Amino acid sequence: MPQELYQEFEKLNLGFVSHTEGIIIEVEPTLEQEIRKGQLEDVKIKEIKESIEAGYWGIYLSCLRQPSSPSRPSRAGRDHSADEYLAKGLFFHEDLVQVGKTLTLYFPVAASAPLGLLPRRVADAIPFSASSLPATLARLGIASDSAQAAAMEETLYMCELPQKAGEAAKFCATSLEALVEGSMAALGTRRIRPVTSGLPRSGAPKQPYTVRAVHPVDGASFVSCHDHDYPYTVYMCHNTPSTRAYMVELEGARSGLAVTVAAICHADTSSWNAEHVSFRILGTKPGGAPVCHYLPYGHNLWVNMEANRSSS
Known about the structure:
Blueprint (H helix, E strand, L loop, with lengths): L2 H7 L19 H13 L1 H6 L9 H7 L15 H9 L2 E3 L8 E6 L12 H4 L9 H8 L6 H14 L8 E5 L2 H12 L4 E4 L8 E14 L4 E7 L5 E7 L2 E10 L5 E9 L10 H6 L8 E4 L5 E5 L8
Antiparallel strand pairs: 1-10, 2-5, 3-7, 4-11, 5-8, 6-7, 6-11, 8-9, 9-10
Helix pairs in contact: 4-5
């Protein structure tokens, strides 16, 4: 990994947990020991483990991605009212990304994958495909009829879908090395850097935020990576052209909370599904005004350091 990335990783909100919170998962002792031993001995993970924190956002991801295809219905029991509530605190119009404007946003409490971010040699030893899911569940000691198994099935389904129209690249990464190398390949250069939102892990209630400063991020193409629901950290990444990115400094109108969010604005939505939740929230349609959203805690954006935006 390029040396300059180590300094940039200090800004990433990823991380490791040595315990579970809210999710009960049975792990075979030998596999768990292998994972823990790999995390302790891996040199790269030692260097970033104190500054990287990861969370997964099932409902947020449902807002960010396209609606499920007709051949695969959404997961049973999903709280669509929660989807709507979160979406209203996630999407916004690009003309609001100006100093003095007001954005109403919501930052949920972060949750962490039980086994954290794995070293590549450990992650690669665990099968990662829909066809091998039964074997993976057995190896991890997860009941096939559990909510965790259903979440894993959905993550694998999403990872195995072909890239959508308008996506220049798409991949899933099960380790830090795969995340970095996949982003390099998608951007066509080794000179990349990560960008992430500076948000409280404890979250913050929905409230109006005043824009105090806006810093455009140079580049015409970016790789966005969103973590998915899995026993260990898994990122689904995609490279969408015709996007603009900003670092936006905000101040909460009620709490005074100061945060800096990475904001992505999709200028070309002509290939998006007309039922995408953002169109309903923003009152627009495919091919209409740009659709913007912030990067939730733990998600990251990879930027080509050699690219300079020729126009805004």
